[in-house]
Structures are given as structure tokens and as C-alpha cells.
């Protein structure tokens, strides 16, 4: 691991500061960049995320996808966390904090909006950035692709009914153009590019060595894409953050509790079930991160651009990158313990087979 990647959290911290400063001094530039969007998907951010996702897609081998079924526990953990636990814990935390702990500082009407925004985030599992977190933890690219694909399929059918139940709203306007465009830009396009690149590298005669050398060469560009994304996201919201620091901080609290709590449950389940680290880390990351484009679009459609719900989803975007990087660091630090535990499992199964 190079120095740049080793101190990634430091660079991200600097990127946050730079983004806030640039948002104040160059508001016109960021307003113009924010306007470059289609179906609520910012095209500048989309290109940067594509740059981050592309290196991992090169590692995808469609011929190995079938072997995912041999280790189903990681996928089961992801599905249980995303659809049976996470949306409900997020709703509960919203009520606890905004109806209870923070009630003296927040008007009741605003509290309802913040809770709604948290629910919209909690019910939308991540589609794009999870590939980045998986790559930073050296996760199994084939397994991660299957996990994201299965979650996206369920999302199409379950998001609206689940949100309707939690919000008590009968008609949820699902922004299909946002959902479809995000999947195309963040999954399908980089996957095709990665598969084509992989085929060309294999055709050159270099084999897996050529693939490893190429991905190592472009990996710094992926990290730079992450840094640039942080600068842009905080530049977009710099004025909001600095004008309402207390509200931003209060909204961030339940999001932080949810993120670290959900990760602990998912990662702990993977540990208990002795799931291999290259599957365990990404499966915990998927449950922790969110599909923020979808959540923001639905919040604006339901409650308006300047609503508390929309603000809460935006805070979710800002909190996610620093939080996920801290979890990546924790996961990488505990990889050795995971590997030893899985080795014990393999040994026990081997002994049982011999007996």
C-alpha cells in the first residue's frame, strides 16, 4: 500500500475543507457543475464514480460468477440487513433522536421532515460506491457484482412499498429515470468497459499478470476520483453546511449511529458464520452505504427541494464517504483475524470429511 493510499483519510479530510472553501469562494462554478445533471443524477459526479468503479470491474470474470453459490452466507447477510433490518432501525433512530433527544432544539414539523429523509436513505441500499469500498478492502469482484445486482433487482419492487409503509404515505413517486440511469452509469457501463478491457489484456498474452499490472497502474486515478468527488459534494453543499452547522450536526448523529451499528451487525454476522474476508467486508459495506441519488430524488418529489427531508438525504451523502473510509480501515485492520477464523473453519470441515 502506497503512502497516498495509506493516508487516504487525511486526503479526504483535506478534500472536505477544500470543498467547503471553494463552495464559498466560487459559488458560481459549483452552481454550474450542480446544473450538469439529468434525472437527478449529476453527470460530473457520475463520471468520477465511473472512474472509481472501472478498475474493479476489470477483475470481474463472468465465468466465475457461478461459484458465488458456493458461499451463499454473504449474500444472505446482505439481503437480511438491507431489507429486514436497516430501513426499520433507521426509522426508529429518527424517531428516537428527533422526537426525543433533539426535540427541544427542533420544531415538530421539521423533525417529521428529517425522519422522512432518514427513512428514504435507509430503504435505499448502495448501488455504485460499494464497488469502491469493496476494491479498497480487496473484496471479491464477482461476488460484489452479484450482491449489487440482486439488491438492485429487489430495490425495483420493494423500495416504494417499504417506504410507503414506514412513511404512512400511500403513493410513493419512484423516479424510474433516476433509478435506471444510475444503474446504467454506475454498473452496466463500467462493467462493459471492464469486461472489454479484461478481454483485450488476456488476448495480448499477458494473462492475469497483465490484468494485475494494468489495474495497479490505474488505481491512483481511482483514488483521485474519490478525492475529487468529495471536493465536489462538499462544494455543492458548502453554503448549507456553514449556514446551518447545528442542524447538519444533529442530522448526522442518527446517521452515524445507524452506519456503525449496521456495519457491526453485518460484519459480526459474517464473523460468526466464518464468511471469508473478501466476501465479508463487501457484504457489510453494502448494508452500510446508501443509494443517495434515489433518496434525494424521492425526497424532492415528495416534500420539495427546500424541505427537511431533502436536507437529511443530502447530509447522508456528506456523511457517507468519511464514515465508509473509517470502516474500510477497520475492516482491513481485522483481515488477519478473519483469515485465521476461516482457516479454522476449513480445517474443521476437512477433519470432519476425513472422519
Describe the structure.
The chain has helices at 3-6, 8-25, 27-34, 43-58, 73-101, 108-122, 129-136, 141-167, 176-203, 207-236, 238-243, 245-272, 277-288, 292-303, 308-333, 335-354; strands at 37-38, 41-42. It is globular, with a radius of gyration of 20 Å. It is built from 16 helices and two strands. The mean pLDDT is 88. The N and C termini lie far apart (42 Å). It is an all-alpha fold. A hairpin with a 2-residue loop joins strand 1 (37-38) and strand 2 (41-42). Helix 6 (108-122) packs across helix 15, helix 12 packs antiparallel against helix 13 and helix 14 (292-303) runs antiparallel to helix 15 (308-333). The protein has a two-stranded antiparallel sheet with strand order 1-2. The chain has a single domain, classed as Na+/H+ antiporter like fold (Up-down Bundle). The protein is 81% helix and 1% strand.
Distance between the termini: 42 Å
Give helix % range: over 70%
The CATH topology corresponds to Na+/H+ antiporter like fold
Q: Helix/strand/pairing class, anyone? A: mainly alpha
Mean pLDDT across every amino acid position: 88
Number-wise, the strands total 2
Task: Report the portion of residues in β strands.
Answer: under 5%
CATH second-level architecture:
Up-down Bundle
* Rg result: 20 Å
Total separate domains: 1
Order of helices and strands: HHHEEHHHHHHHHHHHHH
Q: Sketch the major β-sheet.
A: 2 strands, antiparallel
Question: What general outline do the C-alpha atoms trace?
Answer: globular
| CATH class assignment | Mainly Alpha
Q: Number of helical segments? A: 16
- Please state how the strands of the largest beta sheet are arranged side by side: 1-2
Catalogue the unreliable spans. none
Amino acid at each position: 500500500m502506497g503512502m497516498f493510499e495509506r493516508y487516504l483519510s487525511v486526503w479526504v479530510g483535506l478534500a472536505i475543507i477544500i470543498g467547503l472553501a471553494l463552495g464559498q469562494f466560487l459559488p458560481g462554478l459549483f452552481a454550474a457543475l450542480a446544473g450538469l445533471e439529468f434525472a437527478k443524477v449529476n453527470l460530473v459526479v457520475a463520471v468520477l464514480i465511473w472512474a472509481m468503479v472501472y478498475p474493479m470491474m476489470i477483475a470481474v470474470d463472468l465465468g466465475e460468477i457461478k461459484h458465488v453459490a458456493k458461499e451463499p452466507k454473504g449474500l444472505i447477510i446482505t439481503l437480511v440487513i438491507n431489507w429486514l433490518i436497516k430501513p426499520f432501525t433507521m426509522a426508529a433512530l429518527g424517531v428516537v433522536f428527533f422526537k426525543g433527544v433533539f426535540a427541544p432544539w427542533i420544531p415538530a414539523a421539521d423533525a417529521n421532515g428529517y425522519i422522512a429523509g432518514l427513512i428514504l436513505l435507509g430503504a435505499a441500499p448502495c448501488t455504485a460506491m460499494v464497488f469502491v469500498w469493496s476494491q479498497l478492502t480487496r473484496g471479491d469482484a464477482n461476488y460484489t457484482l452479484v450482491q449489487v445486482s440482486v439488491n438492485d433487482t429487489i430495490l425495483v419492487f420493494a423500495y416504494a412499498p417499504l417506504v410507503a409503509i414506514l412513511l404512512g404515505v400511500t403513493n410513493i413517486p419512484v423516479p424510474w429515470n433516476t433509478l435506471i440511469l444510475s444503474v446504467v452509469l454506475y454498473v452496466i457501463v463500467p462493467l462493459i468497459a471492464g469486461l472489454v478491457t479484461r478481454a483485450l489484456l488476456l488476448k495480448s498474452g499477458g494473462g492475469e499478470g497483465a490484468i494485475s499490472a494494468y489495474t495497479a497502474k490505474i488505481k491512483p486515478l481511482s483514488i483521485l476520483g474519490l478525492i475529487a468527488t468529495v471536493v465536489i459534494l462538499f462544494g455543492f453543499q458548502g453554503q448549507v453546511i456553514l449556514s446551518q452547522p447545528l442542524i447538519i450536526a444533529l442530522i448526522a448523529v442518527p446517521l452515524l449511529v445507524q452506519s456503525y451499528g449496521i456495519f457491526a451487525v453485518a460484519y459480526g454476522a459474517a464473523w460468526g458464520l466464518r464468511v471469508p474476508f473478501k466476501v465479508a467486508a463487501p457484504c457489510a459495506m453494502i448494508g452500510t452505504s446508501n443509494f443517495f441519488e434515489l433518496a434525494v430524488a424521492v425526497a424532492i418529489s415528495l416534500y420539495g427541494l427546500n424541505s427537511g427531508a431533502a436536507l437529511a438525504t443530502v447530509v447522508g451523502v456528506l456523511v457517507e464517504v468519511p464514515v465508509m473510509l473509517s470502516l474500510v480501515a477497520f475492516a482491513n485492520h481485522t483481515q488477519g483475524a478473519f483469515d485465521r477464523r476461516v482457516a479454522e473453519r476449513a480445517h474443521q470441515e476437512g477433519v470432519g470429511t476425513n472422519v
